[in-house]
Every structure is written in structure tokens, then in C-alpha cells.
Amino acid sequence: MVYWxxxxxxxxxxxxxxxxPVEVARRATPTVYLAGDSTMAKTxxxxxxxxxxxxxxxxxxxxxxxxxxxxxxxxxxxxxxxEIEQLVQADDIVVIxxxxxxxxxxxxxxxxxxxxxxxxGDETCTSxxxxxxxxTFNHYVEAAARSFVAKGARVVVSSQTPNNxxxxxxxxxxxxxxxGYAAAAAEHVGAGASFVDHFQAVADMFLKLGSxxxxxxxxxxxxxxxxxxxxxxxxxFVEAVGKRFNGTTALDSYVKSPLPAVF
Length: 263
Ligand SMILES: *[C@@H]1O[C@H](CO)[C@@H](O)[C@H](O)[C@H]1NC(C)=O
Known about the structure:
alpha/beta; Rossmann fold; five-stranded parallel beta sheet; 7 strands; globular; signal; Carbohydrate esterase family 12 protein
């Protein structure tokens, strides 16, 4: 009886104004899962990741699974993508954003467990510390994306955020290789995956904000933002999605209006 009531309630919730329960198995609203590092995660002590602000600008519930210090490799090896794979249902959306902790060389004796094998294909490296095989950023991200798409979910591969581009008082930046890798990952996965250049959107926003305002968003170092900075970085993401900056993503129809205008 309890089971039946739950089904009926779910059906009514999904049926809108007409009141005829249909498709009770499918949830009315997709859930957005976030996979990333500290720049996306719920952190603290005067800092915050942008994933905590996303729900304010879209019409979907957000589950922030980003964790500080992780790379595409360590997020994979710790089973964190697998955990999301267990959770996702058809129509859910997973945003994957890594890069800050993915650089370096896994072949060195001091392999930190985070560095990916260089390249955007099926290159492999051997960990100089453990002897284990290490794969590329693309290998890890694409394997995760395919596992979500196989469950009927959609994936948005997002490029990493930039560091403080006004750190020296002059606006200078070069695009990290992981931005191109992220774009390639979405292309390689194909149907069900899309790309948004969050790096470029935030860079454009910082250029517009100028030196003083941008520097004020980085209270401790050049990577981690204040809560105010995280809110703006979330707005840049949503603006890029809403403007179809790099094509149409699965989040396209869930952006609240008015669209943020930060860049
Ligand atoms: C994404 O689109 C923006 C706006 O057109 C562009 O500046 C940027 O280079 C694109 N990113 C990639 C990786 O193609």
C-alpha cells in the first residue's frame, strides 16, 4: 500500500495539470551532477567552488560531487565517477570539469597520483612510483562520459577555470592544454556529450571586470576564489551555456532568465 501511494504521488507529480498519472518510473525533473576539483567543490575558510552557486541560475536540482585536489585520473581511480554512474538515471546531466590537478608527469618517481599521461588519445604512461599504467585526461573523461551516456544521461564537458589572470596587474594568459583536451573529449564521445569553454567565458569576464575587481576575488592564492568569485564563475558558466558559446548543451533549456551577463 505504501509502495502504491508512492507510485501514485510520483505519477501525479509528473503529470502536470491534466492529472492523469503517466510514466511513473521517470522523474519529473532531471538532476545535474557535478564532477570536478576544488574550484567547483564546496570548500570553505573564505573560499568556495562555483558548483555551489549553479542551482541559483538553472531550473534543475544540483548535486555537487566535486572534491578538492582531484584530477580526472584520481577521480577515476578513487571510484568517484563510478559512484555517479550508480546514481544517474535517464535524462540526468553530468558536468565534468578537470584540469587544475592534471598536469605534471606520472613517470617521475614522485608521481603524485593525479598527473595524467600527456596526450589526448590512447597514450599510456607507467607511474614512476607504483608501476601502474596511467592513461590520458581524455581516456579518463571519455570513459566516464560514455558510462553516463550508456545509462541515458547527458554529459557536458566543461573546460577548467582560469587562474587569476590579473595577478601581475596586467591581463595575461595562455590557454592550458586541458581546454583543448576537454573540447576533444566531447567530440570523441559524440551523441549525448557537449562542450562548454568555461575557461574562455571566465577569462572574458575577468577582462571586463579589470584588475582590482578580479584580484579581490582571490583572497588566498591565484587558483581559489572567494564565495563572491565562485558566484561570478557560476554565472559565466550559465551565460556560456545560454549563449551556446561552443554549441548547444544538454543544459540549454534549463537556464533561468534573465541570462547572467558577466562577460
Ligand atoms: C568557445 O567559443 C568561444 C566563443 O566563440 C571561443 O572564443 C572559444 O575559443 C571556443 N572554445 C574552443 C575550445 O573552441
